[in-house]
C-alpha cells in the first residue's frame, strides 16, 4: 500500500527506518543515539493516564440537545431556552465500581454524565441511571467506595465488607433496593433512564429561583438483563454495552432521551415531608410532576477513544448562569472531588483538551502548568484587577444567594426515615419483580461471612416492609431478628 505521507517523530522529523533499531554492527548492541527508538519506548511507557477511581469503564458519544418546551420563566440558562435551539453535547456512560477492563454487564449503577457545549461555557449534568444514591454525605464516600473495590489482602471483591457497610448505613436501603431489582443490570446504555440525582437551583432573568431535579427518560424503553444472561455476556463479551452503543450509532439508529425536570418552589423545601436535598430520597411526581424541557440525541461516535472518552472530564461544579447548586451535602463534596480528580488524573489544564474545551472564548488569568496549550495568554495582562482592559467580572452572572443559619458543626440531616421510600418502591413492584429482587439479594448476601451483618440488614428490609424482610430471612435460612 503506497502513501504520500511521511512517518515522522513527535517533533516532526521524517523517520528513515521504523523496522530496525540502530545497532553497532549486525548483532548489536543497540545504540543510545537511536533517538527514534528511545522516543517510541519512552512514550509507550507513558501511554496510560491513571484510570478513574470510580466510573473507570465507560463508553461515550457525541450528539445534540434540542429544546422542545420554553422554560425561560424558570431559568436564564441559554442551553434550555428557545424552542428548537440545539446545543452540541458529549455523553459518557459507565459502570461505577469495576476497573477499566471489567465487564459491562455487572450489577452496578451506571454513570450518566452529559457535557453541554453552551455559548456561556460548558455545563455538565453528572448523574447516574438511578434517581438516588447509597449515602447522603460526601464524608462517607471514600469508605463506601473502599467496600466496592478489592480487599487489600486477598485482592478479591468482598461481599462481607459491602453488606457490613450497607447494614451500618441504613440510608443506603433505597438505592440497594433499586440496585438489586431488575434495574440493576440494564440491557444496554440505550435502554436506561438517567438522572441528575441531586437537587439543583434554577434562576431566571429576574433572579427568581426554584429547586429542580433532572430526569432523562429513554425513548428506546427501559430494558434489563436477567442475571444468568448478564453473567454469560460478562464472560463472552465483556464490552457488550460499549459495542452496542457504537454499533447502534454507526448504523444510524440514533438513541434519544427526553429531558424533564421536577420543579419545587423554594419555600416548599422547608415543609416537604422529606428533606428535598437528601440524595437518598426522591420527590413524588404527584407533588412535583415532570415538565418537559427537550430531547437529547446521540448521532456521532468518537474518532478516538482515548482522546474523547478517556480524557473527557465532568464535574457537577461545571455550571453556567441560570443553574446554581443546593445545600445537598453529597453534592457539595462532589463539587470539589470531581474537578480535583481530573486535575490529578489528566492535569491542571484538562479543560484545554479538545473534548473538554468550551466552544465559546475562554478569558482568565490562569497561566502555566503541565500540558499548557495555546500561547499561554501571550503577553496579555496576567492579574486582576488591572488597568489594562483585561477580562472583568460580570455581576449579573453571580450565583443567587440563599439563606443559611445555625452553628458550624458536624451535623447530620434532620430526618432519619430511611424506610418509607424503600418500602414504597418494594410495594410498587409486581410479584414477579419482587421474587427476582429477593432472589438477587439472597444470592448476594449468601457469601457474607458474619451472621450478625446478615441479621442487621434483614432488620432494614423488614422495617421497609415486613414481607420484604421475611422473604429475605427465609431465603437465607435465618430467623427474623428479635428487634423486629
From TrEMBL:
Transmembrane helix in keyword set: no
- Annotated Catalase core domain ranges read 8-392
Q: What is its EC number?
A: 1.11.1.6
Please list the cofactors this protein needs: heme
GO CC terms in record: cytoplasm
- What is the top-level taxon of the source organism? Bacteria
Which class of enzymes does this protein belong to?
oxidoreductase
Residues the record lists as binding heme = 338
List the catalytic activities from the record: 2 H2O2 = O2 + 2 H2O
Region of interest called Disordered, as start-end residue ranges on this chain: 1-28
Keyword terms: Heme, Hydrogen peroxide, Iron, Metal-binding, Oxidoreductase, Peroxidase
Gene Ontology biological process: hydrogen peroxide catabolic process; response to hydrogen peroxide
User: What's the protein name?
Assistant: Catalase
Q: Which family does it belong to?
A: Belongs to the catalase family.
Q: What does UniProt list as catalytic?
A: 55, 128
Alphabetically, the GO molecular function entries are: catalase activity; heme binding; metal ion binding
Polar residues composition bias: which ranges?
1-24
